[in-house]
Sequence to fold (228 residues):
Amino acid sequence: GAVVSQHPSWVICKSGTSVKIECRSLDFQATTMFWYRQFPKQSLMLMATSNEGSKATYEQGVEKDKFLINHASLTLSTLTVTSAHPEDSSFYICSAKQGGSYNEQFFGPGTRLTVL
Amino acid sequence: ILNVEQSPQSLHVQEGDSTNFTCSFPSSNFYALHWYRWETAKSPEALFVMTLNGDEKKKGRISATLNTKEGYSYLYIKGSQPEDSATYLCAFNTGTASKLTFGTGTRLQVTL
Fold:
């Protein structure tokens, strides 16, 4: 149980284009999903918290107009990187909270984004 | 800013060796400490959620201890196997609605 999928697993795009990444909870309903970014040799950094049916909460320094998050259902959240630039190249990974205590999160496998 | 540190950064052991690594976190406002195992090209897998000072949890050959007063947790692997090769992450949170703050991980490689 508690499986989270993420698509695509990797994507290469041209500078200026937009890229959408999907995060799905396959066998549970997730009221809250999280989006993280990881740069080489650094820790997972939370970008935003996404609650179903409401606006995402972004961490300090994360541009909400650049990283659009939509959590339209209890099993799907999407992250759209708008007008991507080479500095947005990174590893993006989502997680979903099943409910209950201690903020236990279940992760997708991540998406490697390369912007040329 | 919460600082979670893990050591060592990487570790290379032989099959059958036992090993351990450390996660250090702020000792104030503790709520829970999470351990994950992350194999290449897979999703991070939750190993343990540690909540009480003195807690010790075990899953097969892997166990973890927690000291909230001094702000550290140890992860132990007994009789390492090649399939234990992965990055082990710890994450700290200060409340049920708080975010997880991750360390940079310990990368373990187990060779025959």
User: Anything to note?
Assistant: The interface with chain B takes residues 4, 9, 34, 41-46, 49, 59, 93, 101-110 of chain A (CB under 8 Å). Chain A has no helices and eleven strands. The longest strand of chain A covers residues 90-97.
